[in-house]
Design brief:
Layout: E1 8-18, E2 21-32, H1 36-44, H2 46-52, E3 58-65, E4 72-79, E5 94-105, E6 109-116, E7 127-136, E8 139-149, H3 155-175
Antiparallel strand pairs: 1-2, 2-8, 3-4, 4-5, 5-6, 6-7, 7-8
């Protein structure tokens, strides 16, 4: 059995009032032919994260990673080519993200709070990312929800990035069923 090639997006562009301003929540999901345990472990393994998290056209480098509730991580996402068309959040070619694991519920949920290093206020603020693997017949439905999305991240870019990341996660976990 193979997973579908497409990622289903849901509620892209839903806006929520936060501290007097509207902040967007985006979500996407994909069915992956792997167990919820394998997906959960891939979410918490720094070597695995560098392989599946960067969307197409980017490479990941983990600088710190404490996979425990309250644990912190730091990661750089680097564009593969200087002609990528999008400007990075930290520099022209790099997005540096600082994160914290808020909740770890084995095989059910990983909640992270992340903040981009950027001088541009359009990328300011703490975004909450919730990964929710759910066991279904034939595999795992993985839903990722990003709340409080910085206004500098366009809906179209975020949708493409989340879809690419979920495709990478599917490819990684389906090739490494004991991840």
């Amino acid at each position: 059995m193979t997973a579908p090639d497409t990622c289903r997006t849901a509620q892209f562009g839903r806006f929520v009032m936060t501290n007097g301003s509207l902040r967007r929540t985006d979500s996407a999901e994909r069915v992956i032919v792997a167990s919820a345990q394998v997906v959960y472990l891939a979410l918490l393994d720094p070597k695995a994260v560098t392989r599946w998290l960067p969307p197409e056209g980017m490479t990941g480098h983990v600088h710190a990673f404490e996979a425990k509730e309250g644990g912190r991580y730091r990661m750089a996402l680097v564009y593969d080519k200087s002609e990528h068309g999008n400007r990075g959040k930290t520099s022209d070619e790099t997005d540096i993200v600082e994160g914290r694991f808020v909740e770890l519920r084995p095989n059910e949920r990983v909640v992270q709070q992340v903040e981009f290093e950027s001088e541009d206020p359009a990328f300011a603020g703490i975004m909450t990312i919730t990964w929710a693997p759910e066991t279904i017949s034939g595999g795992t439905r993985v839903r990722v929800t990003c709340a409080n999305v910085p206004e500098g991240i366009s809906r179209e870019d975020h949708e493409a990035g989340l879809s690419s990341t979920l495709a990478n996660l599917a490819g990684f976990t389906e090739r490494n069923p004991r991840a």
